[in-house]
Specification:
- Helix content is 43%, strand content 14%.
- It is an alpha/beta fold and 355 residues long.
- The chain has one domain (18-336): Alpha/Beta hydrolase fold, catalytic domain (Rossmann fold).
- Strands 1-2-4-3-5-6-9-10 form an eight-stranded mixed β-sheet, sandwiched between helices. It has a two-stranded antiparallel sheet with strand order 7-8.
- Helix 5 packs across helix 6 (160-170).
């Protein structure tokens, strides 16, 4: 009996050691990929767009939880211009959003593109950022913007970023309105079952939660979670090759991050929401079931609007996909844009408090 126990302990220790060795190797690979990927964004960004980004953009690093986050800032000359935060999805990061950033910049917005922890140029272990940490990064970005700029702040979240945008607004991000390309919450296993690439993982949720306590750092392939192949229409499959080859694209997800995606309720439930929220839903989405976004919208309280995007896959690089999103988001943000801070102070009646 003792021999069997000793053998079991030795086997367990060996397994843990192998996982730890693999993780150490993976982190070295992460660092190498980080160095190799510094200029990869130029390979998928049209030359004219890259020149625009370099001429109009600056980079910042702001504190957020354990690791700082990278922030691309495209600032208008006027400090009271409206500010828009773009929240990227699971596979992408801020540099992928340069065409979208320019579209809003040309409409008068100062645009901020944060790389969430463990993504793009930000710090943190690749794929290990929890929902709570990603939400905090967006809140920290809006607080930084509030201190730096005088204009109203809005947020547009894309894919996973849509759910994170709502979570950040619910957590107190100082935004006047949000727009979500896809919407769900991170406490709904039934909805997540329609999103995750391997629903069987949710059947093992109790076991995974137990394992994640000591082994939350263990990472699984992102394809276990995300239906990568269904992200775009078949005619655009070449764009996926570009993404797959990006050294900075997320290829793995840590158990702690996976568990957090189904165990992190928003600070304010959908039904109690008061932040003006615009929701887009792609009719032909093969990654995030349209029924999930539609059901979330129906539960949503507060000022809201729903826009169906017909004949649209989950993602596209074509301008025809983004034009209605930019146009309707801009309209929504202007409808709910408060008076600029300095203007509200200037118009305060004599003897009245501006607080």
């Amino acid at each position: 009996m003792r021999k069997w126990a000793a053998a079991a302990m030795a086997l367990a220790a060996g397994g843990v050691g192998a996982l730890a060795a693999r993780e150490a190797w993976q982190r070295r690979q992460d660092q190498q990929a980080f160095e190799e990927g510094r200029n990869y964004w130029r390979t998928y960004t049209p030359a004219e767009m890259a020149r625009w980004a370099e001429a109009h953009g600056t980079s910042q690093r702001i504190p957020s939880y354990a690791a700082g986050i990278h922030l691309d800032v495209y600032a208008q000359a006027a400090n009271d211009a409206p500010v828009l935060v773009l929240a990227h999805g699971l596979l992408t990061y801020g540099k992928y959003l340069i065409p979208l950033a320019r579209a809003f910049y040309d409409r008068g917005y100062t645009v901020l593109c944060p790389d969430l922890g463990g993504s793009g140029f930000s710090g943190g272990v690749r794929g290990a950022t929890s929902v709570g940490e990603a939400t905090a990064a967006l809140v920290d970005t809006t607080i930084w913007a509030r201190r730096r700029f005088d204009g109203s702040i809005a947020m547009l979240g894309l894919s996973l970023g849509g759910a994170l945008a709502y979570a950040a607004a619910a957590a107190g991000a100082p935004v006047s309105a949000i727009a979500c390309l896809d919407l769900f919450t991170f406490d709904d296993p039934a909805a997540f079952r329609q999103i995750i690439a391997r629903p069987a993982l949710l059947d093992a949720l109790p076991v995974l939660r137990a394992i994640a306590v000591p082994f939350g750092w263990v990472r699984v392939p992102v394809t276990w979670v995300h239906r990568v192949a269904g992200s775009v229409a078949p005619a655009e499959s070449g764009d996926l090759t570009v993404l797959r080859n990006d050294p900075l694209a997320r290829r793995q997800v840590a158990l702690r991050a996976l568990i957090s995606a189904v165990t992190t309720p928003p600070a304010v439930p959908l039904a109690h929401n008061t932040v003006p929220t615009l929701v887009f839903n792609q009719a032909d989405d093969a990654v995030l079931a349209p029924e999930v976004t539609r059901a979330a919208y129906l539960r949503l309280g507060g000022p809201k609007r729903y826009i169906d995007l017909p004949n649209s896959a989950h993602w596209s690089a074509h301008s025809a996909f983004w034009e209605p999103i930019v146009r309707e988001s801009d309209r929504w943000f202007h409808e709910h844009q408060p008076m600029p801070l300095r203007q509200s102070i200037d118009q305060t009646p004599s003897g009245a408090s501006s607080l």
